[in-house]
Amino acid sequence: MLEEVIKKATGGLDRLVDDLVKSASDKVKEKLSEAFSLRKLVSLKANIGRVGRVKTILDPDSIVDLNKIFFEKAITFIDGGRAKNVSFFSSKHTLIEGGPGQGKSMYLRWLCLNEGDGSAHIPIFIEFRNLRYKKALKAELFEAIREFGVDLSDDLFDFLAKSTKIVFILDGFDEVPNSERLRVARELETIARTYPDLRIVVSSRPDSGMGSSVYFEKLIINNLSKECQANFVRHLYSDGDQAQAINNILSSNDFLTEVTNTPLLLTLFTITYNARQFKPDSLAEFYSLIFPTMLYRHDRLKIGYERERTAGLTDYQMQRVFEALSFVSLKNNRTRFPSSDFRSYLESSAKLERIDNNLEDRLIDDITCITALIIRDGFDHYSFSHKSIQEYFSAVFLARLSDDRKASFYSLTILDFDEYRKWQNSLAFLSTIDEKDYTKYFLLPFKRNALNLDSNNKVKITYKSLLSMIGLDSKTEVTEDGTIIKLFWGDTSYAVIYKEYSDFTRSLVRDFLEQKGLEIAKFISFSDVDEYEKYQHGSGNFVFSINSFIRGENLQKEACQYISDRFERSHFMSELDKAEKGLVASEKVADDILQF
């Protein structure tokens, strides 16, 4: 009778727990029975269920069952594969990488639900954005696991991690604070190295700090094909005629299908098109429609009904406040925040836009209830419905700053990699909506800074700038005789902003290393016992950081000279000179015409 109650309450988890208890030593068995008591199993099952209760931008007023709305075919990896549970992954440690709006979070939630319904693993779903980063990662994970429903001690964690019966599903590595990412990445690798049989799935945007890991197999999410977009639209709308009307527009417009190549952008297009029958000509124009569309879709789309705005602001004022709010919150590196911070951000935003004080509570009501671009997220928290919305409207705010403030912002993102990471997607929007100043204050200085040009415009790459181009944590896998097998490149701003620089530099570094086989062999053989064991890899080869090798063999100066000479003779120099002359000519034309 008791067994039937447990099964009804906890699904397949009871069998997993039963297997765990049977395999445990007497020392662990009692703790395990307590950690997974019936009451706690029911709580764990409820928490897994809550992972599947979501709000969507298509229907922000409702909490819906993810299983009913998730479109499985939207998540296909570049290698052509799909996975509906973690057993499909070839590696125990998997990095799911995808750009903004590709559905990483929804996918990880769906994986969690599938594992909860199955009988292979106990899933523990954790969002990186909810960790506090006050302690070591393992301790932070303990706290998050406890909140998820399982109270672990060190020895219990050790037992479970080695049991192959548990999977950590960790969402949003790119939302780890910039200052903590390197530490967290290394501690995550330590956990993966210590527990090779522990299933870990991590999601992240590209170039966010996990790219060089040798312990995580990277799976990159594909953009939606035209065929998949059409199927996705049919999945979104039960009204076949409505879906067909949208698909007719998409099938006749190649630009649109290039833009609507992620689940988020495709969903936003269906919303804006249904409201306005408008076809944008650029990604920036597409995003510019989002705020006015969301502002009105609850109101004037319903005949005879207009929701009252409690703050009494005009459309123009509302959008300006939202832009400032996006900037202020992103500057604080917060996509999710408590109501007290929301009020503080709105107070600052109102001051920036010279709007009356004491409207914070009314603005919270208008923004969340009318636009739904920020939604309630828990008891006393709010979050942007998607981070890319915050990033776009931050870019709009930045684009309208004075030249001096704009130049200071762009300079900050060039000189401080942590700041660059924070504003990375906003910079991508600025390259379109603020093209001239983006080129003047960011792109050209960025290129000059990378090459460390001297007063004679000669390339003088320093070791610091070399590491910033290839990634401080880049690694190489080699044989004991020094033959290069594989390179694991770290995440850098150059790989995103100017991929050609990054690819060229990395190819030169590979060439340089391939010429240093004897030095690599010596570096391995003369390392001390601890280092030698740390370098050993499961493949039988050796893995170590490129930086540690170059420094260890005092090759910094030689490497920099090698890279500088080849950049000096490359086409990049003539392109940079042409771009700078073009900018000067453009500004001279403006001066001649405007004359004020």
Structure description:
It is a single chain. The chain is built from 30 helices and 13 strands. The strands form 4 sheets. It has a 5-stranded parallel sheet with strand order 4-5-6-3-7, sandwiched between helices. A 3-stranded antiparallel sheet has the order 8-10-9.
Note the topology.
Elements: H1 2-10, H2 13-23, H3 26-35, H4 38-51, E1 53-54, E2 64-65, H5 66-69, E3 93-97, H6 104-117, E4 122-127, H7 137-148, H8 154-163, E5 166-171, H9 181-194, E6 199-204, E7 217-220, H10 226-236, H11 240-251, H12 254-259, H13 263-276, H14 283-288, H15 290-296, H16 315-331, E8 336-338, H17 339-352, H18 360-371, E9 374-376, E10 381-384, H19 387-399, H20 403-415, H21 417-433, H22 435-451, H23 463-470, E11 475-478, E12 484-488, H24 494-497, H25 499-514, H26 517-525, H27 529-535, E13 542-545, H28 546-552, H29 556-568, H30 571-594
Parallel strand pairs: 3-6, 3-7, 4-5, 5-6
Antiparallel strand pairs: 1-2, 8-10, 9-10, 11-12, 11-13
Q: What proportion of the residues form beta strands (DSSP E)?
A: 5-15%
Number of helices: 30
Let me know the largest β-sheet. 5 strands, parallel
**Poorly predicted runs:** 1-9, 298-306
Tell me how many strands there are: 13
Distance from N terminus to C terminus (CA atoms, Å) equals: 88 Å
